[in-house]
Amino acid sequence: MPFILITPLSAVPDAIEAHAPSHMVTLLSSAYMIDTPAGFPPEKHLRLAVHDIVDEGLAESPARRHVEQLIEFGRGWDATTPMLVHCWAGISRSTAATFTLLCDKLGPGSEMEIARALRERAPHADPNRLLVRLADEALGRGGAMVRAVQSMGSGVLVAEGVPVEMPLVLERG
What secondary structure, in 3-state letters, does 12-71 show? Predict the structure, then answer.
């Protein structure tokens, strides 16, 4: 089953070795941006220099262009192998990016189901609200993505998340 793997930066080498992802998204500030790992195709590694902040207009705030790059990159992934999405801690930016990618892949009306699955699989998830709002606007969801993430509440407080697999096929219930 195809999936997106969410990890903190510290788990990236092990995740690449264990899951052999075809695509990778890195969401880190420019000061901590990593190079593409050795042996990984650079054209399949999207590096977005964003801080984990929710105020627009600050240095390296998430912006519409970042979300548009993420969506375009996700549409180039055929989902035959995993995609790895990571940020510093695997809690906020990476969960927002994964939520965005899944909302795009699964289509309108799937937002609440994806949010429920994300909360179930990642109790620590606290998706970056600015990234989610910008994605909602870019995908024309009329606030459905924002409402879905708000319905999740706050995540369990942890210093670093654990690797989480988010399938592209969610159980309908």
Answer: HHHHHHHHCCCEEEEEECHHHCCCCCCCCCHHHEEEEECCCCCCCCCCCCCCHHHHHHHH
